[in-house]
Automatic annotation (TrEMBL):
Protein name as annotated: GcrA cell cycle regulator
Region (Disordered): 43-97
Native source species: Hirschia baltica (strain ATCC 49814 / DSM 5838 / IFAM 1418)
Compositional bias ranges of the Basic residues kind: 54-63
Pfam families the UniProt entry points to: GcrA
Composition skew (Polar residues), residue ranges: 67-84
DNA sequence: CCCTGATTCGC
DNA sequence: GCGAATCAGG
């Protein structure tokens, strides 16, 4: 399977949306996650929106070659059963949303915000502001029954991830001649 | 043990 | 350029 422009475009899109390499590999089909990662690297997309992993490993040692020309003939290990369990792909688990879809909470202009110290059980726990800010707090309205949020924020919390269904692949076929 | 991305290197 | 093997971490 070759990396056509369409597939590379799809790869970029999915990668930018935060999908994992294996997810992208399944989506595209015909490639493994290694292939996806390798392509991502060659495209220079390796670091997306996850700088929370500044792991710098020293250069690894060269991979040891299995030495196929081994003169050994007495390989007495037939007991190994290399059966593999076929993974059943999960149907549709909205594991996570795209980072771009995250809406930064805004403070409601009513001054009803409570702080981490004062928020209690029946209060809406919708975050207000940046957790790093000293005045970070919660909405504080009465929570809506089961929901940890008030009626307003509960709607926001349960809003399904709306996907963009705009398939604009027209320009990809211009080089088909 | 499952997953994740990162890197190397033979092809 | 490609991707399996491998590594390293969660």
């Amino acid at each position: 399977m070759a990396w056509t422009e369409e597939r590379v475009t799809e790869l970029k899109k999915l990668w930018a949306e935060g999908h994992s390499a294996s997810q992208i590999a399944k989506q595209l089909g015909g490639v493994t996650r290694n292939a996806v990662i390798g392509k991502v690297h060659r495209l220079g997309l390796s670091g997306r929106a996850t700088p929370s992993r500044p792991v710098k490993r020293p250069p690894r040692l060269a991979r040891p070659k299995p030495q196929v020309t081994q003169p050994i003939a007495a390989t007495a290990k037939p007991a190994s059963s290399p059966n593999r369990t076929p993974k059943e792909s999960l149907p549709a688990l909205p594991s996570r949303m795209a980072p771009a879809a995250y809406v930064k909470p805004k403070r409601l202009g009513n001054g009803d915000m409570v702080t981490v110290m004062t928020v209690s059980d029946s209060m809406c726990k919708w975050p207000i502001g940046d957790p790093a800010d000293p005045d970070f707090g919660f909405c504080g309205h009465s929570s809506d029954g089961d929901s940890p949020y008030c009626s307003e924020h509960a709607k926001l919390a349960f809003q399904p991830s709306k996907r963009k269904r705009t398939n604009t692949y027209g320009q990809a076929t211009r080089m088909a001649g």
